[in-house]
Amino acid sequence: MRVRRHPGNIRRMLASRLKKVAVTKPILIASLTEVERVCGKPSCRCQRGFKHRVTQLTYRYQGKTHAMYVPVDFREEVRSWIEEHHKLQRLLKEISELSLMLVRSHAQERKRRRGRS
Fold this sequence. Notes:
3 strands, rod-shaped, three-stranded antiparallel β-sheet, single chain, alpha+beta, 117 residues, 2 helices
């Protein structure tokens, strides 16, 4: 991220990022995967090699990876929740970088002022 190092500019950018943190929909830390499965019916076409494609939600809970079925009509909504988490992660990274820049610029300003006295 390219930012002019002036503290006022950094503070303005930081304030705008902090306003964006307000979450408007659910956030989900997980991933969607497409899996091919066999259903178990002896007469089904999946027994002959044409497996059923299903979407699974994979997530970690108490240190273990779990997976659950996601219905087709609910897939896009769940995908948007996962994307919301990714957006929030990127935003938090930007906020952290701007905060570090603010600390650095403050320290540099103090050094500069001491040199003038």
